[in-house]
Amino acid sequence: MPGYADPGFDTLALHAGAAPDPTTGARAVPIHLTTSFVFESSEHAASLFNLERAGHVYSRISNPTNAVLEQRISALEGGIGAISVASGQAALHLSVATLMGAGSHIVASTALYGGSQNLLHYTMRRFGIDTTFVQPGDIDGWRAAVRPNTKLFFGETVGNPGLDVLDIPVVSQIAHEAGVPLLVDSTLTSPWLMKPLELGADLVYHSATKFLSGHGTVIGGLVVDGGSFDWAAAHAATGKFAELAAPYDGFHAMNFSEESTVGAFLLRARREGLRDFGACMSPHSAWLILQGIETLSLRMERHMHNTAKVVEFLASQPMVGRVGHPLLESHPSHALAKKLLPKGAGSVFSFDIKGTRKQGQAFVETLKVFSHLANVGDCRSLVIHPASTTHFRMDDEALAKGGITQGTIRLSIGLEDSADLMDDLKRALKAAEKAGA
Amino acid sequence: MMELLVNGAPTYFYTGGKAFDAAKPTVVFIHGVLNDHSVWILQTRYLAHHGFNVLAVDLPGHCRSGGEAPSSVEEAADFIGALLDAAGVAKAALVGHSWGSLIALEAAARLKERVSHLVLVGTAFPMRVSQMLLDASQADPIKALTMVNVFSRSTLAPPPSALGPGTWVFGCSMALGKRVLASNTAVNVFYRGFKACDSYANGDTAITQITCPVLFLLGAQDQMTQAKAAQPLIAAARSSGKAVSVTTVPVGHHQMNEAPEETLFAMRDFLNKN
Q1: B251 shares contact with chain A (CB less than 8 Å)
Q2: Buried-most residue among A116, A143, A366, A436 (CB within 10 A)?
């Protein structure tokens, strides 16, 4: 039974990592806007640098405000610890760069946020890390894509843009059979909808910019380690993951897997990744994200309520062709979503207006409550027309490969009155209809 | 790290990032049920860089060590003697947590002058384990592991710990427990360890047979081995004329990770002063 020693999700969302400040009595989490922390003595300094004692040295590596956020997201995800970074993209980069170097290979879902796809397809390739992309539902494809130098499987809980649900239990099993971990981007679902670590993923990251902060005010990322992947065993079997299971000359010749049987990834990611790449999160950003997490349950429940209303509304409109949400039986991930995401498959989805690019533009420009911008997971409802913005340079054939048409619209459903959202959409659909006349 | 053959089985020791040096005093760290050497990481790494050899062992049949997992405290205590022989250590301090504290106690009673100091962290005698928990450790180990960690936790806001800032101690202990359990496919080391704790009957005699100073390092909010459950052992030690120190840290059963600094300083001062 939940209680203080075994608290439930909502209690953890408010209390995990935070206690009244022992010096001032402040109940809310203080923002520690300081670059560095005074050593008690030279001996204390040396012990901190040598990981003999735990504590804060410099805010690029750690900060008390960020540490509260890291403990809180770990508690909510069921992890062993976390690292806060400058953005969701920094979280993905830190994960990849901690696990591998040039000559390595990743198997990733095709259904990824564009920035992630760019990072893997273009940027990491420039640094010698190759990626094979697989349709998330192509189970045989995941298995077939494994190479001797594969170090990581990667996908999103619900893929972009079609909301393909990643079958984490099955894909993680294939990853583990191949001796590699599964990293999951859980940005669009948040731990309120799904806990990927419980389903078999080994590492989870978030763009905390989205639902975790929830108010469109801050950029940040979080990587959470489930402590489940045995880096030392994998290294002994295949020679992979020397980064985590062999002495590292860059940090006291430390073998991170010996220092911590379950936490080698986090040790190296902080001691090398934050130290050398430096993509740290500002303590002020950490505080803003903490404010968001405190109301995550309340917001997600409302996001799901409004999304169900809007999906039902759109599915009944003659101007609307396809509505790409797993709530609908027509969606290919409907059954899997019911199994893995019983509280909902998120509030970011796309639908197709029957019409031209011009009609899509007219629809977007008519909306008043929905804001036209390039973000998701805000408390306000958001809209974007991919064919005229994010995917502007693509022709029809290229768009089709990405599951996008000239009339595809992506929505991020916010917390407004659902009646107002539907009224806004209704007017915009009429405008789109007129634009095609 | 160091690997030695103890009783014919490969046995793993974490040495705190320093090579073993026969000229230094040695401290042997003994973990509890479903733990391994890594629960001591902050204390061992510090002591290894401050004048001590540390040998933080993975008990037989646990994680990186081979051999048969001990079925009793007495069997494990004999292993500690064999370990000192294998390492060529004439005299050592013994530090144990929970089940490991009983092993350290029994070993100290058997090894007499070969033990320089005894540190019992989160100890109790008798160390009874409820039948419900014993049954759960066999029938539903993950449920039992969760119960153990719920009983062990005292705070939702632990200080920077084993992995530095951002460590979620509860999650770490859950993950480690699962890893240790999975490391032995022949034996349920969860049940075997708990059963050994529950069955151990020699604590009140053993404490009178030790020849070294003893530190009781207890958690004020410990629900697994409550501080009051160590009092008979403390009283027996005092009444038999032992040099007894008692330090109580303001946490639960995760003393090394919920109060890493207080736990370290209590150990360090005890080892240096006695």
Answers
A1: no
A2: A116
Choose among B178, B106, B119, B121: nearest CA to B148: B178
User: Which residues from chain B sit within 8 angstroms of residue A176, using beta carbons?
Assistant: none
Token pair of A74, please? 């770990």
Its CATH architecture, for the domain B2-273, is 3-Layer(aba) Sandwich (3.40)
Give yes or no for A1 touching B (CB within 8 A): no
Element (H, E) at A358: helix A357-366
> Any idea where the domains of chain B sit in the sequence?
2-273
User: Does the pLDDT value for residue B191 go beyond 70?
Assistant: yes
pLDDT for residue A1 is more than 50: no
Among A234, A257, A292, the domain-final residue is A292
Residue-level pLDDT at A4: 66
- Which two tokens mark A399? 């768009």
Complex confidence, ipTM: 0.96
B160·A254 Cβ contact <8 A: no
Q: Look at residue A134 and tell me if it is in a domain.
A: yes
A290: nearest Cα among A4, A5, A12: A12
A20: in domain: yes
Residues of B in contact with A47 (CB under 8 A): 46, 49
Q: Cα torsion at B199, B244, B28, B45 (round to 10°)?
A: 120
Give the domain range for residue A425.
296-435
Prediction pTM value: 0.96
Residue range B121-125: mean pLDDT, rounded? 98
Answer whether residue A208 is part of any domain. Answer: yes
Q: Please report residues of B whose CB lies closer than 8 A to that of A272.
A: none
A40, with CB counted inside 10 A (0-12, 13-18, 19+), is exposed
B63, B153, B157 ranked by CB distance to A261: nearest: B63
A274 with A327, same domain: the answer is no
Report yes or no: B250 at the A interface, CB cutoff 8 Å: no
Give the separation between CA A110 and CA A137, rounded to whole angstroms: 10
